Amino acid sequence: MAQIAFAELTVRDILTLAISNEEEDSRIYQSFADQLREPYPHSAKVFDVMAEEERSHRDMLYGLYKTRFGDHLSPIRREDVKGFLKRRPVWLTKNLGIDKMRQEAEIMEMQAANFYEKAADRVLDVDVRAMLLNLAEIERGHEKKAGELIEATVVGEAADEEAATKKRMFVLQYVQPGLAGLMDGSVSTLAPVFAAAFATHSNWSTFLVGMAASVGAGISMGFAEALSDDGSLTGRGSPWLRGGICGLMTTIGGIGHTIPYLVPDSVSNAFLVATGIATAIVLLELWAIAWIRAKYMDTPFLQAAFQVVAGGVLVFLTGIFIGSA
User: Which of 277, 273, 274, 281 lies closest to 256, judged by CA?
Assistant: First the structure.
């Protein structure tokens, strides 16, 4: 079906589209509020207010429409108009974080204001034009107020509570799977890499073993994390996002101490050079793991360092012992 230009819309079409737009915006804001009600109750109240305001705008527009054209709306849809406002499907908004929801609200209000201003320029009916201009002004205010309302509502203890919740969600959805992957990649690949190194004294062979172990572990850990929990009850977020983070960090953890074995075997003391660099990188990896655990997992740094280093050293020595046998 061919689309029509905005300039070809009648007053009836414009009011119908405006009513439809306000109805959809109210549903989106209500969806935001419902999603945030438990983790971010204060922000949820803000979106409740915004949803109610959109419903009041819809009622105002429909009341005016009925006085001009009766009860039945025009059959026109937003898809029928070239370049008309586009909204995310409501089901897609379930994947947005709270900051993205706030940004989305500001964009929606800006687009709505533009629509009302452009529509008012095309309307000759005094009452309709006045209402459209009034709504444009309201939406312009909402564009700025979307952030201000939330900032004004979320203050003091409420702000602290939401910040703490946000941190917990960040830890659950990003830090935990990333840390699990980094630990597995850094520690579990130590044995095969250093076993291959001391068994062959060949840098290239060791590099191939390290790459295979790192990538294989990354794939395995990624799928294991993704399939372990769909996130619907635990709040841990998208399983495939967590799996991707875990798999990527696992691979990075293993590749870190594998890359030094790219030192060509033709270089003097190539094996000792590569092994020395790899050992230094292992120490950095273990320190990074201990720091992340201390920062995000509420584990004292010395305790975290002892646990990680002790485990890493045991695996490291196991690889050397088996490779030297």
Answer: 281
> What domain count does the chain have?
2
> Do both 69 and 130 map to the same domain?
yes
Do residues 129 and 56 both lie within one domain? yes
Euclidean distance between CA atoms 159 and 40, whole angstroms? 10
pLDDT score of 232? 47
Residue 138 and residue 246 in one domain: no
* pLDDT for residue 15: 93
In a domain? residue 227: yes
On whether residue 185 sits in a domain, the answer given is yes
Is 1 within the bounds of a domain?
no
202 and 265 Cβ atoms separated by less than 8 Å: yes
Distance CA 140, CA 51 (A): 16
User: Domain end: 117, 132, 154, which one?
Assistant: 154
Q: Residue 307 falls within a domain, yes or no?
A: yes
Domain region containing 94:
6-154
Mean pLDDT of the chain: 83
Q: Final residue of a domain: which of 154, 189, 214?
A: 154
User: Which of 87-91, 109-113, 207-211, 220-224 is least confident?
Assistant: 87-91
Measured CA to CA in angstroms, residue 15 lies from 69, 71, 123, 137, 192 at distances of 10, 12, 10, 17, 70
